[in-house]
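From the methods appendix. Each design record in this collection lists the tokenized structure first, followed by the designed amino acid sequence. Records were kept in a plain field format so they could be parsed without special tools. The example shown here is representative of the layout used throughout.

RECORD:
FOLD TOKENS (189 positions):
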């Protein structure tokens, strides 16, 4: 399944993504290169790749293990490697490397979101302190009960009880400050 060429492809992809500052894909291809090297009987090469990975990503999944061979025996790492092998088999990695090498930087699309177009006119921002205008139909004459309810709604705006409560607390505090100096005279100390 793996060849020396596979190791080189994975390492080249890791270098490519390292230059592009894409740490996630760089780490993925370093792990795959180490896996291929270990599978081909090159544990020292796999260990060098593991150390390179830990240098770039000190909190990698491979950090708790003393060597790549030890990490490869762990069940969670085995699942991780199987998943990476399925996502990036050597043939797909070779195609990906061919696309990356063949594409010139001027032709590549920048990463990020493209704007679809600017809006014609910005929407007006409503004033948060003004009440929204209510549309009243002139052709329908409201009954006396409905007009009384509308007057109550117009008089009591939502949140007006908060301002009333703050006014009462402030008034009580002001009265307390006015009365406090006279407490000894009234015999309350």
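DESIGN:
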């Amino acid at each position: 399944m793996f060849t020396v060429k596979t190791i080189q492809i994975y390492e080249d992809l890791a270098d490519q993504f390292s230059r592009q500052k894409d740490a996630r894909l760089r780490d993925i291809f370093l792990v795959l290169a180490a896996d291929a090297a270990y599978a081909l009987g090159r544990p020292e090469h796999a260990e060098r790749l593991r150390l390179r990975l830990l240098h770039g990503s000190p909190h990698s999944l491979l950090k708790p293990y003393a060597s790549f061979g030890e990490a490869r025996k762990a069940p969670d790492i085995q699942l991780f490697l199987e998943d990476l092998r399925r996502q990036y088999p050597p043939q797909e990695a070779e195609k990906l490397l061919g696309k990356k090498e063949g594409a010139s930087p001027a032709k590549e699309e920048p990463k990020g979101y493209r704007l679809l177009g600017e809006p014609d006119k910005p929407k007006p921002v409503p004033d948060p302190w003004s009440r929204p205008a209510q549309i009243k139909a002139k052709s329908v004459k409201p009954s006396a009960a409905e007009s009384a309810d509308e007057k109550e709604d117009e008089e009591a705006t939502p949140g007006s009880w908060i301002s009333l409560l703050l006014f009462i607390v402030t008034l009580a505090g002001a009265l307390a400050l006015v009365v406090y100096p006279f407490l000894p005279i009234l015999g309350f100390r």
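APPENDIX NOTE: The first helix runs from residue 4 to 19.
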